[in-house]
Amino acid sequence: MKTPNFFLADECTILFGKKSKDIFGNYSGIKLTSDGWSIRVSNQKKWKKPVTIVIEGSTKPVNLHIHLGADISVQWSIDYLINLKQANIGIFIKLDKGARLVLTNVFIGKSNKEFTVSRIIDQAIASELDLSSGIVVDGNIKIADHYELNGVGSRLKATMLAIAGQNETFTSIQDVFHNQPLTVSEVTNLLVSAKESQMHVDVTETIGKGNYQSVCHQNNRGIILEEKGSITVEPKLIIDEYDVDAGHGCAIGQINADELYYLLSRGMDEATAKRLIISGYLSPLYKRIENPGFLKKLEKAIERQMKGVDY
Amino acid sequence: MAVLEIKNLVVSVEDQVILNQINLVIHGGETHAIMGPNGTGKSTLAQVIMGHPKYHIDSGEILLDGIRLNEMSVDERSRAGLFLAMQNPIEVPGVTNFDFVKSAVQAHLGEGKHLRIGKFILAMEDAAKDLKMGSGLAHRYVNEGFSGGEKKRNEILQMKLIKPKIALLDEIDSGLDVDALRIVGENVTAMKSPDLGLVLITHYQRLLDSIIPDYVHIMIRGAIVKTGGKELIAKIDADGYDWLKAELGIDEFVEKKKPISLGTCATKSVK
Predict the structure, then answer these.
(1) Residue-range definition of the domain harbouring residue B84
(2) Is residue B259 part of a domain?
(3) What CATH number does the domain containing B108 carry?
(4) Minimum-distance CB partner of B268 among A252, A270, A281
(5) Tens digit of pLDDT for each residue in A115-132?
(6) Most buried one in A11, A38, A265, B102, CB count within 10 A?
(7) ipTM summary value
(8) For residues B179 and B131, what is the distance between their CA atoms, to the nearest angstrom?
(9) In total, how many domains does chain B have?
(10) Which residue of chain A has the CA closest to B168?
(11) Which H or E run contains B124?
């Protein structure tokens, strides 16, 4: 996918691709290594607005390493523009003590080749990751997430919104390890299956013995828009400690009948009502997109995924 | 002037008649109150008129301006001019009140006509101000995090903007404090005109002190058993419904309970 102008024009955008653009200046710590791009932030800097990192898709495997030093707090978006022959993608995030990363991670585009996104997260003491992911890829994709809460009191909030259309397959494997006491994780998956797509999500959260007063909750919701679509979710908790707060839930089905009736009772036809309800479902992701040009692009991509849905 | 006619309406669920031979005519400009004990079918009647898919009409007709509604879908009935302010307004996560009401008003404009956004925004702001709903209303998600009173006022706000021919207000007074009830009462009363027929479903006199009805109907066990004027309200408020049950020889309800399965959890899969 060609990098849109709204990214090139944005002063807070870093672009990794043919027209690489770096706004980090002396603070950047950006390096291109044999293993891919590496960003290390050691000094706190104030930005006019959240920084967007745009990564052009590639036919060669691309890795991105992010390392936030102690007590660094940043809000970023990492947007991948998927290539038609996209190779596998790796994202490695390391948060030092007290670091805080609010990250929106969107994958958008079309690939004729199945590819895997591996995200490995390592969190130290009292670090916080608030990750909101959007996956709107025309093609088959597998996401493998591995979260290690390695520091006491580290916190993870991971929300993933994925939409699959046509006869695509979407697979997500999420493993969260609470390796220290007082660690907190909140995992939410919002899935929309349009047309004949097949979606599968497998979430496993593990709290080992001795990791007392840890909290882990997961919430999985899926909407199947047409009869031939399918969503399966396996929400799992593996807990070897008594003093914890844990819960999981899963709700998969068609559009909520009460919500639909309410909108119909206000005169909207069924297609309009369903579109509006779905747009509401997607709002957690929309809210996180700062760049209006990219938001429009995302909305169009979602429309394309839902195109031809028999409401 | 609109006319809603309900003729010999019979509705049953699982072989049990829940509305029995209902006859009612509501003209534009009239205000009808429907009262009755809990579980007698008042809200069901409103939902059946609106076309809730849960209910099937066994016999009888619902006509709006002479056009039969029985076979019409919920949205078609709304666009024909019906409005139901719900007893428990539904929360629609992620959908802003602005987008929701805008889509509703747009739907009522008809094909080829487009909403003038500027005019709509002003109208929505005015309606919110009239109902003392605060400036952030448009950007809040529909009914999410609303208090009971806010939800009810939000129903009236929609009604003001959609401008129906016949409005059914199902227990619009529940969850309202004294001030909120006055505000709702004033707003609904201000909307009274020959172009609007009102049906108020309520348990309490206090709503009917604010919105004075022309007719009062009492429903018991799925049937309208008595129709009168305002004088009935005071009688019910003072004496309840026992006198009427005794007068008509109606026995107390025997509630039928059915066991339900709560199902199992852990992994759910739908194919």
Answers:
(1) 3-248
(2) no
(3) 3.40.50.300
(4) A252
(5) 999 999 999 999 999 999
(6) A265
(7) 0.91
(8) 11
(9) 1
(10) A265
(11) helix B117-130
